[in-house]
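haha ok so turns out i had the wrong file open the whole time. this is the CORRECT one, sorry everyone. sequence first:
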Amino acid sequence: MRSKLAKLRKMTFDELRVRGSQALAAFAERRAWSPLTRLPTDQALLAQLDPARCGGRELWSATEFLGHFQARKEPRFFASFTDPEVTVVELQARWSEAEQGIVKQASKISQGRFDLLGLRDLGFGDPIDWHLEPVSGKRAPLIHWSRLNFLDADVTGDKKIVWELNRHQYFATLGQ
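then structure:
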């Protein structure tokens, strides 16, 4: 307790204010008082869009949005939408070897095998266990993030591996 008080005394007012607001936000999240703990509805998301940028319409479905972006002339969404065949031919001409590597990597990902942080062929289970650190075999407890001592490797293993998996950067490979 004394060390915590000594640490508090050394903090500036700004640091106390920021850390206090962070602690309060985490407390509100744990109690589900924070609006950030609720997933927005489609209607709430769509209501935030500027109707002037969307042809004056207020609410759009995902299909309507895609149609709007594909049909408009300016500003262009993706040039590849106008002629996908030409885009595929150009990609294959420029990077002929890339397709096999991408398909191989995507197949591994689909089987729950990942290359992360220089580690190869990590397995996270089937279905994927988003809390498992496969090198140590440790699984982070299912508690609120603010209650987890992520610096204690005895509890969570190497947190960076789990964090990297949960960043979902492999979605780009799956999309390709």
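The two ends are 54 Å apart (CA to CA).
again sry for the mixup
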